[in-house]
Each structure stands twice: as C-alpha cells, then as structure tokens.
Amino acid sequence: MSVLLDVQELQTRFQVRKGYVYAVNGISFTLEEGETLAVVGESGCGKSVTMLSLVRLLPPAASIENGKVLLRGEDLLELNLRQLRDVRGGEVGMIFQDPMTSLNPFINIGTQMAEPLVYHRGMSKSDALARSAELLEMVGIPDGEARLREYPHQFSGGMRQRVMIAMSMSCEPAVLIADEPTTALDVTIQAQIVDLVKELRDRSGVAVIWITHDLSVVAGIADRVIVMYAGYIVEEAPVDALFEDPRHPYTVGLMGALPSLTGETGTRLTTIGGSPPDLIELPDFCPFHPRCPYAIDRCRKENPMLEPVAEASDRGHRAACWVDIRDVSVSSEAGVAAD
Amino acid sequence: MTTQEIAVTSEIEIAEASPTNLWRDALARLAANRLALVAILPIVLLFFIAAFGPYLTPYDFLAQDFTARLVSPSSEHWLGTDELGRDVFSRILYGARTAVSVGLVSTAISLVVGLVMGSLAGYLGGRVDMLVVWLTDVTRSMPALLLAIVINLTLKVPLEAWMEQMYLATKNTFFRQTMWVDLVLVFGALALIQWPGYARLIRGQILSIRSRNYVLAARALGMPTGRILTRYVIPNAMGPLIVAVSAGMGGAMVLESAFSFLGVGVQLPIPSWGKMISDGLRMWQTHPHLLVGPAVMMAVITVSFAWLGDGLNDALNPRQWGG
Amino acid sequence: MSQTESSNGVPLVRVENLSKHFSVRIGAYGETRATVHALDDVSFNVQRGETLGLVGESGCGKSTAGLTLLQLHRPTSGKVFFEEQEVTGLSEKEMRPLRRRMQIIFQDPYSTLSPRMTIGNAIGEPLWLHELATGQDAQERIAKLLDDVGLNPAFAFRYPHEFSGGQRQRVCIARALACEPEFIVCDEPISALDVSIQAQIINLLQDLQEEYNLTYLFIAHDLAVVRHISDRVAVMYLGRVVEMAPKERLFENPLHPYTNALLLSVPVPNPRLERQREHTVISGNVPSAINPPSGCRFHPRCPLAFEPCDHVVPEWREVEAGHWVACHAV
Ligand SMILES: Nc1ncnc2c1ncn2[C@@H]1O[C@H](COP(=O)(O)OP(=O)(O)OP(=O)(O)O)[C@@H](O)[C@H]1O
Ligand SMILES: Nc1ncnc2c1ncn2[C@@H]1O[C@H](COP(=O)(O)OP(=O)(O)O)[C@@H](O)[C@H]1O
Ligand code: SF4
Ligand code: SF4
Ligand SMILES: [Mg+2]
Ligand SMILES: [Mg+2]
After folding, report:
1. What is the number of structural domains in chain B?
2. For residue B46, which of B299, B269, B266 has the smallest C-alpha distance?
3. What domains can be seen in chain C, in order of their start residue?
4. What confidence tens digit (pLDDT) does each residue in A40-64 have?
5. If you measure CA to CA, which chain B residue comes closest to C100?
6. C129·B223 Cβ contact <8 A
7. For residue B28, which of A183, A309, A321, C156 sits 20 to 30 Å off, Cα-Cα?
C-alpha cells in the first residue's frame, strides 16, 4: 500500500483574548490508500481542529503555524483557495457530527446533493439529480428520486447522516473524513451508519479517517488508531495492538473507564482522576502528568516525543511516554484524587 | 524502575487557579472596554449636573436680562443668551434635569408595565400570552411620534380643564401648575411607546429560562413558585434587561427631544434640550450658539448610552468573553 | 442489592399504569392538534436500596417516565405510590415533604445550575427550604456535601461557570443529596460527560448509594453503563416498557426482540470479537410518538412479527419470576 496522506508537524492554535489556545501541537501521521484510521480522545483534545486544518476549514481565530499536509505528495497548505475548493468535496469528503445543522434547512436535498456534482464533476443539473437519486438508494434511503424534493427537516437524524455520507461520497473522494458521525445518534442507528460506511469503504476503496470519542466503535471499524490528548498524539497503533497491548497510561485509563456488556459486574470502574488541561500554554512537561498514576520526576520536566514502543515497534506501534508501563504496577484506582 | 511515586494533582488545585465570579468578571470586562469607559464619564456627569445643576448655574434659568439678548458666548455668558436674554449654559444645565427625569421616570414606568405584562405572558401563556403579544404588536405598529402627537392633542385640553376644576374645588396650588400635565403626558407617551419592547424581552427571557433545567431542578426540590421566580428566573433575566434599560434611557431622551421639537414635549418654562434645539434651529444662521450647546449635549449623551449598552451587553454575556 | 426481594416487602416506589400524553400543534402553522404518546401504561416497582436501570433510544419516553413519576409532569392517567402513599393528585404543597425524599439529577450539568448562584447557595437552597439546617450548621452541611462528592469545600463561593462538566455534575449530585433523599431519579447523569469523567461519576454514585442506602432509577441509553450500575433493568420502546428483568437475565437471555436488537447494536471494545460478531443490524427508525403503530409498537421493525402483532397489544406479563415481557412471540 502506498501513502495517500502524509501529515507532518502540524501545529494549529487559536488567538483568544488571553493569548493563545494551543489546539494541535506538531502532530504527524500518515494514511495509506484504502485504510481506515480512527482518531480517539476526549472532547477538546484537538481531533476536530486537526481534521479541519487538513482542508483549512478553520474558524478565523485559528491559524496553522507550521506543518505540511501532503495529499499524494501535494501540500494542501500551499494551495490557493481555488485549488483547495477542488480538493474539498472532491478528493476529500467530510461528514460532521451534527447531522441537524450540516444540511441547509432552506434548500431541498436534491439541490444540495447535485451541487458538488455540478461543481466538481461538471455534470449537467439533470444528470447530477439522477446520480443523487442513485446515491440516496446506495446509502439506504429508498425511493430516492421522490425524496430529492424533500427538505432536511423531513428526514430523521440517522437519515440526514446518510444524506451527508451520500454527498461526501458523491465525487468518489480518495479520503473520507468523518468527525464523530454517530455521536448524536442512537445505538441502533449508529450500528446502521457504521455498517454503511464499512460497506461503502469496501466497495469503493476510499480511505477513511474516523474521529470518535468512543473506543468501542473504533474496535469495529478501524485498521489503525491514533489516540490524542491535549493536542498531541500520545499513542498510535494497529487496532489489535492498541486494544491488546496499550502502552500509554491515557489509553489504559480510557479502556478501564469503559463498562462492558460481558464479563464480571459489581467491580468498580478504574478512573482517570481530574480533567483535561486547558491548552493556554505549550507544556514543557508531559501534559498528562497531573492525571497519570505512572508519573515520574522526568514527566514533570520534559514532554515525551512519540516514539516506537519497546518490543513492538515493527507493528508501527508508537507512544509518547517516559515509562514502560509494563514494568510498573499501580493500584487500579490510582489517580482518583478527586473522589 | 521499581517503585513509582504516584503523583496526582487533584481537580481541586486545577480549578483553584481561576478564582472569579460572574459579576466581578463582568465588571472587569466592562473596565477593559474603552468605549464603555469613555461613555460612563458623560453619563456620570449628566446625573451629577441633574442633581446639583441649580447650585452650579451662574444664572437662574428663568432670569431674563433684556439688556443682554442674543449675546454671543462671552466670559459672562459662557454659551451666550437667548432671545429673552436667558443664559444658555444655565438652561442646558437645567435641561439635564428634564433629560434625566424623562429618562428615569419613563423608563421606570415602561419597565414596570413591561415586567408585569411580560411576566404574565411568559408565565401564564395561552390566551394571556396571545393578548399581550397582540397588544405589543398593535402598539409597535403605530409610529411613535404620531402616537405622541395624538395623545397630546386629545388629552391635554381635558386634563388641563380637570386641573383647573380641582384647583377651584380644593384651592390646592399644586393644581395650578400645568407643567405637571405636560410631564404626565410626556412620560405617559414615552412609556406607551417603550413598554412593548420590555414586555417582549421579558416574555422571551421567561420562556427560555422557564424551560431550563435549573428551574425544573428547583421544582424537584419542592421550591414554591414565588421563590423560583425571585431566585432563579429574575436574576437570570437581568443581564439583557440591564442592557435594554441602558439603551432605553438614551432612547427616551432622544424621543423627548423629538416631542419638544414637534411641540408636544415639555412646554416652557422648564428648559428641555429638544425645545432648545428646535428654538435654536430657527435662527441657527444668525445665532448658531443657540443650537450648538444643546445639540452637542444631546449627541454626546445618546452616543454614551448606546456605547454603555453595548459594553454591558458584552460584559454580561459570558459567551463574549472568549477563551 | 437484591432482586429476589422484588416479590416480598413493600416497594419504595410503585408505578401503576402510568401514562403521559402531551398535546402539541403540528403542521407548518401549528394548525393541527395532535397527541404525543410519550408514556403509555407503564408499571414497575423499585425496591428500597436497589438500582432500576431504564434504557431505550432517544425519545422513547425515559425522561418523561422519570419526570412524571416525580410529579414534575402531571400524569395523564395512572398512579404512583411512594412507600404505599399515593402521590398522584397531591397538590404542590402536599408534595413538598415528599419532594425532600425523592430527588432528580439531570443529563445536562450545564443548564441544571443557575449561572447566577454560587454553588454553595445552590446546595444550601434545599437545606433552607426543608429546614434541615441553618446558619453555621448549614455551612458545615454544605462543606460536608461538597466533600462527599469529591469537591473542595472552599468551592462553595464559586459560580458554576468556573467548573467543568464533571465537576458541575458533582455539584448537582450534592444538591440532590442535601435533601437527604431516599430515592433519586438519575436522568442520563453521565451522557454529556467524557468517558473518563463518566467513570468517575458512576463510581461516585455507587459509593453514595452504599453510604446513604439510596435507591436509584437510573436512566441511560448506554447499555453497558446500565448493566454496570443496575440490579434490574427495564427496556423502553416508544412510550412502553417492553421488558424488565434482573440484569443478568436480561443481558444473558433477552426475550423481547427489541432488547435483543438493542444488544446486538452495541459495539464491543474488542477488535477480534467485533470482527467475528454476528451483525444483524435492526433496520428503520423509531416511529413518531404522535401516531404510534397499532398493536405491538415494535412491529414495523420486528424480524419476528406475525399475525396478531399489528393489531393486538401484547400483554405485559411475568414469564419467569421477576422477568416481565410484552411480546406475542414469547
Ligand atoms: N413537553 C413536551 N411537549 C410535547 N412533547 C413532549 C414533551 N416532552 C417530551 N415530549 C415527547 O415525548 C416523547 C418522549 O420524550 P422523553 O424526553 O421522555 O424521551 P427520552 O427517552 O428521555 O429521550 P432522550 O434519550 O433523548 O432524553 C418524545 O416524543 C418527545 O418529543
Ligand atoms: N473557535 C475556537 N476558539 C478558541 N479555541 C478553540 C476554538 N475551537 C476549538 N478550540 C480549542 O481547541 C482545542 C481542540 O478543540 P477540538 O479540536 O474541537 O476538540 P475535539 O477533540 O473535541 O474535536 C480545545 O481546547 C478547544 O477549546
Ligand atoms: S510521560 Fe509520565 S506522566 Fe506522561 S504518560 Fe508517561 S508516565 Fe504518565
Ligand atoms: S409482539 Fe410481535 S412485533 Fe412485537 S416484538 Fe413481539 S413478535 Fe415482534
Ligand atoms: Mg470535535
Ligand atoms: Mg431524556
């Protein structure tokens, strides 16, 4: 497989009244052709800002300070706005968290769906509409042709998300970026959407970046996983390795915090004490140390780099931690000073 | 690595780092807003003049000096004198009283009416709500100045006649002062024009706050309705109201000037800036000093209230505070 | 605590055929009146000291059940008993002493605290209202409550906006505890929180339950969380409870097709299992509560639907001790 997207040292910050919020702090990752990469982390850890930076869809207060975003070798950060528009919705399709607000409530579905086809593909309006109807059927909305005339409020949340998927897939993108596409949906609908994306991916070979805060969803869809914390990638691994052999204390904490549907009950959940930091300064220490049960002196003085982990580096397993946590045991409820 | 020190900073310390409170923060925001600060100065000055004007004025506002009519600004009469030889500067200082009392009283009346109507509409809903909304719509659909003129024309004569009768019946000299009729009519007209705005604002606030979970939580705690209103609903409705009142004060003053300009305002002898402007306009080419003083005051005060209102709006809205 | 108790002893809360319908206006100009069947004919008991979980998809009536139970909505029909005392039909004033004993915690910790009130005052309100403590006593109680929920007592003078979501939820819990309640409705108390914070709050709720012998009605849409915290679980679909059982039985042997479908939809945090797992995704959406399907409300989506399902409402019956279900196929 060849590298499709190569992100290098991406850094994005927001200008705020008190100074800056350092939302994304020099992260690098790659995405291969046809691969599904999941990005997990709690809210505010920089997942959305990272993805919006890739296609420069950031709010005005944000600025990309550094980095390269190479899509098949071409740096998206160097493109002018015109070229960038061809990429957005063309090479790169996007789906957002809130299916309620990502569609224009005043324009019917058909017109909204046809637009990118006319713009990117140069189709005639009637061809575009015909294709849109097909796309609707493809994402599981029967009677597509009739529904093109309907408006977003006539669709349920799950169906709107299907429409969003149909739209983002309409120009056969190379990359589909999905930012928490199922967070606002019920489990049964979430299962439907996950299945739909998997099916489309297998059929068209599109590479997917799936952003979520829910580790359970990751297990079912991802090939590889990136865990983010405070604007840094703290761990990166193939999905099996991440679940079986997590190496960063934050990843371990996230997994311990999940109640499960099987196995013992009546046990206590392990927790991560405290809450995520606000990012008003770039830390010169490990940003996780106030919550980390494994922290050593060094953690308070130096910020660890993302590096291959011991005895598993061949799998592309990397973590940013000074401690090899396999050597240490901590009590299951360490780090819960708050309780 | 064998023993690891388990270091955990608790949430407690993290949150300790930002000791703030909403109102203090709002004040700090206001203080950081240069426009609002600049605006506060003339407003404070205005209230000061209104309170102490009579002790500051070099001349009585009524004192006519026929030897010095229409004189230009000089060291004796800083802003000159008018047709009747009255000192313009003194009259401007007295005019501040009219402006402030119009602003305060008419805003107070319309606020009270608006509060009652708005809360009833918001809390009771249904028919009451529909009625109040309809009333506000009707009132707002009428041109403000026209309304004032109509009120003045239809009510002034009967009211004055009634005062006269009362005087004859009671011999109380209070009823001799027909300027009260003017004041009542002006305040009444202003309140009539302004209450729908407050009523709508309060209704909206109550509707949105009533559905907040903290009101539900208070009900779940068994809180009586009165306490829910005073402790939860009203404090949370305050912010936008304070802003509206600030802007409304300036608005009322401008309206009063417009009334005076049209001859339905406070009639002489109480000086009113609007009246002075309209008089000044008649001879602005020959005696511009009659116009400049009151016009500048009027402009400064309205702009100040607008800026202060904006500043309060930003200061009281946590969403405006940024990261 | 114990599910076997469900057949003996007086339940703390008993809900009998409770319904709540809302009258709404629909159509572009609100020209038509319609009835939302938010809660229909629901019955269950909650034993003292246990946690009854209530799960279901968005809009199925979970919150309505909690709010109607607490008389924060007037029920359309049905009865609620608290320790065998009927609470339906009581006036707000007559309710007040009972309000102290039954509390609620909401989903959204951001809108549940008045932004203009210090958290100390917020927690002090119930103390004052129910005359539980005054003056210095009250201050000490507030400090103790904050400590109980894992917050620094010095926070009493702060405003809600200075706290994170998890901390606010702790404050809400402290406020509910201030009444010294016996029963708390937890309406999705963790849904708005991050995963790591969710675990903190779950542990806190469990600790408090043990310490104060609390009884919970725990509403959630996350099945794994409900399984973790509950003793018994009730599953709702479109205004009705379709299945209720001790949690082991419900999760190991779900009888209702909807429960089954719900369980299969939950992703498992294990990639190997997830790849092998059978994936029968349930099709379609939850229909509108305005015109709920006739008969069994699940029939348009049910893979097992047969002859009587679309016109006969399945009976709510106990198929084994403590295991209730409403389905023709069981
Ligand atoms: N005040 C109301 N007026 C009209 N309809 C209402 C009202 N409150 C709730 N409903 C309707 O009643 C049904 C049940 O709502 P409820 O809030 O109980 O759902 P829920 O199960 O708690 O959902 P969620 O998981 O989204 O919180 C929904 O169809 C909802 O739209
Ligand atoms: N418009 C904005 N102004 C200032 N800070 C922002 C803005 N949007 C996001 N941030 C900050 O950037 C960081 C990352 O946010 P985001 O990428 O949205 O997180 P998530 O991982 O939940 O998607 C957070 O600290 C957030 O507060
Ligand atoms: S570097 Fe130190 S503080 Fe950071 S995660 Fe590793 S052990 Fe914890
Ligand atoms: S009653 Fe019929 S439709 Fe309803 S769940 Fe049972 S089998 Fe399915
Ligand atoms: Mg996000
Ligand atoms: Mg709810």
Report:
1. 1
2. B299
3. 13-101+181-326 (3.40.50.300)
4. 998 889 999 999 999 888 888 899 9
5. B221
6. yes
7. C156
